[in-house]
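Ticket #4471: structure output looks truncated?

Reporter: J.K.
Steps to reproduce: submitted the chain below (237 residues) through the standard prediction queue, then opened the result file.
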Amino acid sequence: MLPGSYGEVLEARTREEFRDEVVRFTQRMGFETVSAMAVIDRSPGRSEFIAIDNTPPGFTDSYDDPALGRLDPVMQHCKRQTMPIIWNQQTYLRHNVGELWEQQARFGYRTGIAMALHMPEGRHFMLGVDRDQPLPAAPDELQRIVADLQLFAVVAQDVAMRILMPVAQQPERPGLTPRELEALRWTMEGKTAWEVGAVMGITERTANLHINAATHKLGCANKHQAVLKALRLGLIH
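Returned output as attached by the reporter:
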């Protein structure tokens, strides 16, 4: 259903596997470092941050200060916006915090792209990729990179919430029957309703009923969206 690395991250079952897939995707995109963070708002002014990253040795020690986060224009953008931000030294200079860029540039953080997804019930997901070399100057190429990262963030956030969030904080999963899940699994393989019915030993009409019921329970508009959401939730593999 999903090309290459987009689908691979859905297979992650542990924090380590999730981190490895995120890092692998990032490096395929031409970025050396990445940070993926799930944020859970506990109460006004108090949030829990759960992150995976591949930051270089020493970077966290010099930059792990909440006060710096309040000054960092990239972090502040992601707290308030859903549009990706493409940043470099000029971004920090415009906000009169050029020294922050100089501090992180020593570790290879010279330019990058960051974005945030803000979801109901005080849940957020942030993804940032960084590198030492300038980003492509051609607008079309840069736009393609941003679009690829946005799609990856949408896929990865569901996995992050499932793996990184405490079980008690995770959204309730829809209760699909075994037959509905089986019908979705065969749909994921590209089979038509007639073929699903033949494999399951039921009529095409009954196969459609199972697929439609699963689609409705998952709150999706069509069977393809239902398969993708079931994959994200870990209901099918």
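Triage note (M.O.): checked the attachment and the full token line is present. The mean pLDDT is 87.
Status: closed, working as intended.
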